[in-house]
């Protein structure tokens, strides 16, 4: 399966939700969705809570997190 292009689904807008990283076209923060997944919620659970989201939106959250962690791993520890 090909990794989803998160840039098409995730954005930062200073005028939306205090500039937090959110799913485009919503005020739903990526950190909330990532935390929900970490807490054991499934795609279907999240879709029930946020019916405006697609499974691809949720996949984009994971792809975004993976890329952010990859970028951070390039920094020396303690930086």
Question: Can you give me a brief rundown of this structure?
Answer:
By secondary structure, the chain is mainly alpha-helical. Helices cover about 45% and strands about 10% of the residues.
Structure description:
The chain has 79 residues and is mostly helical. The chain has one domain: Winged helix-like DNA-binding domain superfamily/Winged helix DNA-binding domain (Arc Repressor Mutant, subunit A, Orthogonal Bundle), CATH 1.10.10.10. The protein contains three helices and two strands, in the order E-E-H-H-H. It has helices at 30-38, 43-49, 55-73, and strands at 10-12, 21-23. Strands 1-2 form a two-stranded antiparallel sheet. Helix 1 (30-38) packs across helix 3. It is globular and about 40 Å long. The protein starts with 9 loop residues before the first strand and ends in a 6-residue tail after the last helix. The mean pLDDT is 91.
Keywords for this structure?
79 residues; Arc Repressor Mutant, subunit A; 2 strands
Count up the domains: 1
Number of DSSP E strands: 2
CATH architecture: Orthogonal Bundle
Rg on CA atoms, Å: 13 Å
CATH class designation: Mainly Alpha
Please outline the helices and strands:
Layout: E1 10-12, E2 21-23, H1 30-38, H2 43-49, H3 55-73
Antiparallel strand pairs: 1-2
Helix pairs in contact: 1-3
């Amino acid at each position: 399966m090909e990794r989803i292009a998160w840039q098409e689904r995730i954005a930062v807008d200073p005028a939306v939700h205090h500039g937090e990283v959110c799913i485009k076209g919503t005020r739903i923060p990526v950190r909330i969705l990532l935390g929900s997944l970490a807490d054991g919620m499934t795609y279907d659970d999240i879709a029930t809570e946020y019916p405006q989201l697609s499974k691809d939106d949720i996949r984009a959250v994971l792809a975004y997190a993976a890329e952010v962690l990859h970028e951070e791993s390039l920094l020396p520890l303690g930086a």
